[in-house]
Amino acid sequence: MKNIKAIGFLFLALLIGLAAAVYAAGWVSRQGNIASNKVVVAAVDIELGSKVNPQMLTTTDWPSGSIPPGAFKDIKELQDRVVKVSVLRGDAVLERKLAPAGTQGGLSAVIAEGKRAMTVRVNDVVGVAGFALPGNYVDVMVNAQQDKAKGEEGKQISKTVLEHVLVLAVAQESSRDDTKPKVVSAVTLELTLEDSEKLDLARSVGTLSLVLRNQVDKKTVATTGITKSQLFGEKEVPPTAVKVVATGKPRVFTSRPVPPPAAAAAECVEVIHNGSRVLNCF
To answer: pTM to 2 decimals?
Structure first.
């Protein structure tokens, strides 16, 4: 009786193993029948602004149902094209990652349409201790002397003049893959034409500072700037307005000497009557 049970269990195990083998063979067969197409991918890491050549590329099988839009099937289609973003090894080379056909390589290829690139001189403090790297966003602040008003001295003010500005390059490097801080002497920013004019004026009237911001934070904040008196909590005294009243015809006064006020007098009032002046002290 025990032998019959053992034989039954052994037979059942054989059936289960056979069913699993049949299922696995069918799954492998189905996977092999999935349609695939050749897609061009990067054979090496390609930095932005680089001109593509065949040695940088290769082709690989890609499932037909998941080919990304803008993919290429032939390496020859990418001859002398320029990438405007970094492409890592094994990534598909897509049309949206390329500059328009005929674009020459270099930094100019990565400037967005309608934008300009402008370089400003920085130091280790202005350059946020080297943490303002290509691909980061910064605000630009200027510290300058305001224009002098009548009877007043020009006030020192710090104000943010540009917000959410893309850093294209630091010194002569535009790679966005490195995260190590780099203390450099110049930073190139991507700006609109109007912002380029603002930055050019700002660097001529005062000292610039870069303020590093979160890459996903696109909110802008309007500020009026801060003066030295506001920084130290001093009350600003508004200038006194002098009111001038114009009359129809000028008055003619007789020249009459005004006696000096008495030494003990507390108050004096000058009375003008019929063109004559009289000084009365009390």
So the answer is: 0.60
